[in-house]
Amino acid sequence: MEAGKRELLARLHQLLPLLPRVQPNPMPRVQADQVLSGFLRPPFPMLPETVLLISPIAQHAEFLREILTKLAPQVNLTQVSSLGGVEAAARQSSILLTVLYAGGETGMSPRSISKLKSLPKHPGPILVLLPPEEAAKVRTFLRGGADEFWLLPMDSIAFPPRLLVLMEWGRAALEEESFHEETPPRFSLGRLFPLRKLRCAVGRLVARQRLEGSGAGELKSVFAGKWQKIHRLGFGSFGEVWLVRRRGKGLQAVAKIPHTPKLNPQFFREAAILKRLSAHPSAVKLLEVLDEDQKAVIIEEYVDGCTLQQLLDEGMESTAKERAFLELLDFLAFAHGHKIIHRDLKPENIIITSAGNARLLDFGAAKDLTRKSTSSTIIGSRPYMAPEQISGKSEIGSDVWAMGVLLYTLATGLLPFFDDNEKNLMDMILECDPEPPRGIDPSIPEELEAIILKCLRKKPEDRYRNAGELRDAIQLALPGFGDGSSLPS
Question: Would the pLDDT of 217 be above 80?
Answer without folding.
Answer: no
